[in-house]
Amino acid sequence: MIPTIGSRARLAVTAGQFGRVVAVFPRAIYVRFAGAVGVVAITSIDAPSGPLHMRVTELPKACVGDTVVWHGDSLLVGVHRLGIPAQEWAPTPVDQLIERRATAVRVLRDVLGTTRMLDLDGRPWNVRGDLRRHGLRMAIAHLAGRGAGLTPAGDDCAGGILFVTALLREAGLSTWSSSALVELASGHASHEIAVAFLVEAARGECIEPLHELLGSSALGDRREAAHTMCILDRIGHTSGRDMAFGMLVGLELADVIAGDWRVDRDHVNSASHSPTYTATMR
């Protein structure tokens, strides 16, 4: 396995220069850097590539509160020096996603199960029904910070929805813009690690296996999709599966989400142009 670094992780490291460890786990050290990007995950080499991941052959020992400093081609994590990977990871694009959406939905339903619902707070949550009733903005808010895991199940599902909506927009669908999706993700009421990954999902980038699952599903390759789903099932508490489920819901209800974007946009524009009345005291 070759060490890699995501483009946003490289930007955070080189622009922020100085950071501090905010969380430590067996396969990842999370560092908050100064600047707009914020959190980066320094991970073991067996973790998947992703926009915020810096994968290294050996994780250093670190504690919450340790300082992290950028020195050209390396990072100083506490007293340990880490080489910054030369190879930058970039996801493989999915061609003709709009035209192949129905195929992707069919394969994902087969791999995930058509009746699956999200387990939030020990009870099933009907994400599809919530999206139809309340629209994307409220549905994402209802998922915020709910469920088990470092990145809670609700956040992972929201990430899958935002991720595939961003890619459909890139493919030419008239739906929520990247800036609007990033605004939704940035205001998400969860902890900073979850929000950092949500913002990248809203830009159309997530961990590599989710990109691979979407690609194989769009090509109708059920065997490869099932293999990638096994990889995702080993990520987090249920993070991989919850992201995949959110991606399926985003594909299934892409037209609903696109229609909701037009309603939400018109509502926001109307509110911003409404007259303001000032009472005059006499």
List the helices and strands and how they pair.
Elements: E1 5-6, H1 7-16, E2 18-25, E3 28-33, E4 39-44, E5 53-56, E6 67-71, E7 74-77, E8 80-83, E9 88-89, H2 101-112, E10 118-120, E11 123-125, H3 127-143, H4 153-171, H5 178-186, H6 192-202, H7 208-218, H8 222-232, H9 239-252, H10 254-272
Parallel strand pairs: 1-9, 4-5
Antiparallel strand pairs: 2-3, 2-6, 3-4, 6-7, 7-8, 10-11
Your description of this structure?
With 282 residues, the chain is α+β, with helices and mostly antiparallel strands. It has two domains: 5-89, OB fold (Dihydrolipoamide Acetyltransferase, E2P) (Beta Barrel); 101-269, no CATH class. It is built from ten helices and eleven strands. The protein has a seven-stranded mixed sheet, sandwiched between helices. A two-stranded parallel ribbon has the order 1-9. It is globular, with a radius of gyration of 20 Å. The model is unreliable at 267-282 (pLDDT under 50).
- Contiguous uncertain segments of 5+ residues: 267-282
Radius of gyration: 20 Å
Report the average pLDDT across residues: 88
Summed up, the domain count is 2
Distance between the termini: 76 Å
Beta-strand share of residues: 15-25%
The gross shape turns out to be: globular
Quantity of strands, as a count:
11
Q: How many helices?
A: 10
The run of helices and strands is EHEEEEEEEEHEEHHHHHHHH
Write a compact overview of the structure shown.
The protein has 282 residues and is α+β, with helices and mostly antiparallel strands. It has ten helices and eleven strands.
Keywords:
282 residues; alpha+beta; OB fold (Dihydrolipoamide Acetyltransferase, E2P); 7-stranded mixed beta sheet; 10 helices; 47% helix; disordered C terminus
